[in-house]
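Customer escalation, tier 2.

The customer says the design service returned an amino acid string that "doesn't look like it belongs to this structure." They asked us to rerun it and document both sides in this ticket. The original structure tokens are below, unchanged.
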């Protein structure tokens, strides 16, 4: 039997420590198939800071999650052992050192990871770790921004550069790279040209609106195929109406319903890990952003659980 969340009929949801979905800590189980881990790091942001408080906010908002997922018809916490692995303590003053620490910690966690950030810089060390186990991986990147800049203020490692570095390092399968939800002004057309040269396909927020969810899901599934898949979700892929608590908001984004339905459309894909980043609770209202992020993380945990043999 797997150890699941605290029973809310015995302990009210607002009582007790806020582990993700009120799940056991990693040190309370023999082993975990799926681990939720926080990375409270935001030294790589280019505008509003505060995502270092994202993991705590998402855990707090996740108190209301329940053990059965009707949209995917799965009880993830019964199917596999899921645990909260706590936070990876990364150097807040040295981005290079933080990246190394995150990579090493991910290597040491013997489970499939759903990581809560933190800013998008953390995707690079997580992808490095995933590639050590699976080889170059397919990537679905949900974001308002491309995150394929070369440098920013001369810095090679920021929340705007992780996927360029990942392509350069050979840890991504360049036949299976997609951005979803891209929108907003750019510094120039060269941003798109560079992104295309790196191998990315783009489905903009407008594409999701005009082409519809079923077509978008079909395009993504065809591009990914049966490759090992990593999903990276910047919460600013959502419109600021659905996620005001983030560092670089852009008008015209996805609804939380659209994002969750696209994720559910990935059922059966070979998901090997995921992250949810850029939740900055200082700019949030009534936990709108952290609630959305907690549900995104729950869907990702559920997708991973569905792949495990029972």
């Amino acid at each position: 039997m797997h150890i699941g969340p605290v029973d809310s009929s015995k302990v009210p949801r607002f009582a007790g420590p806020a582990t993700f979905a009120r799940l056991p800590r990693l040190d309370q189980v023999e082993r975990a198939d799926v681990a939720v881990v926080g990375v409270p790091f935001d030294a790589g942001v280019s505008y509003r800071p505060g995502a270092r408080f994202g993991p705590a906010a998402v855990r707090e908002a996740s108190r209301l999650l329940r053990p059965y997922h009707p949209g995917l018809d799965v009880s993830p916490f019964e199917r596999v052992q899921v645990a909260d692995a706590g936070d990876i303590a990364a150097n807040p003053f040295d981005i290079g050192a933080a990246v190394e620490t995150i990579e090493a910690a991910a290597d040491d966690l013997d489970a499939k990871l759903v990581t809560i950030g933190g800013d998008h810089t953390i995707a690079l060390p997580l992808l490095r770790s995933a590639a050590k186990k699976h080889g170059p991986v397919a990537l679905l990147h949900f974001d308002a921004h491309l995150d394929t800049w070369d440098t920013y203020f001369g810095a090679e490692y920021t929340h705007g550069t992780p996927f360029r570095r990942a392509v350069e390092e050979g840890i991504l399968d360049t036949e299976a790279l997609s951005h979803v939800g891209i929108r907003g002004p750019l510094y120039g057309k060269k941003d798109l040209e560079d992104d295309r040269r790196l191998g990315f396909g783009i489905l903009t927020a407008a594409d999701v609106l005009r082409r519809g969810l079923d077509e978008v899901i079909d395009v993504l599934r065809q591009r990914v195929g049966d490759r090992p898949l990593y999903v990276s979700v910047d919460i600013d892929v959502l419109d600021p109406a659905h996620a005001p608590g983030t560092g670089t908001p852009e008008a015209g984004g996805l609804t939380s319903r659209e994002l969750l339905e696209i994720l559910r459309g990935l059922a059966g894909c070979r998901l090997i890990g995921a992250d949810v980043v850029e939740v900055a609770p200082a700019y949030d209202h009534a936990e709108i952003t952290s609630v959305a992020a907690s549900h995104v993380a729950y869907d990702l945990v559920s997708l991973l659980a569905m792949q495990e043999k029972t």
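Tier 2 assessment: The sequence is consistent with the input. The chain has a mean pLDDT of 97. The longest helix spans residues 288-307. Sent an explanation to the customer and offered a walkthrough call.
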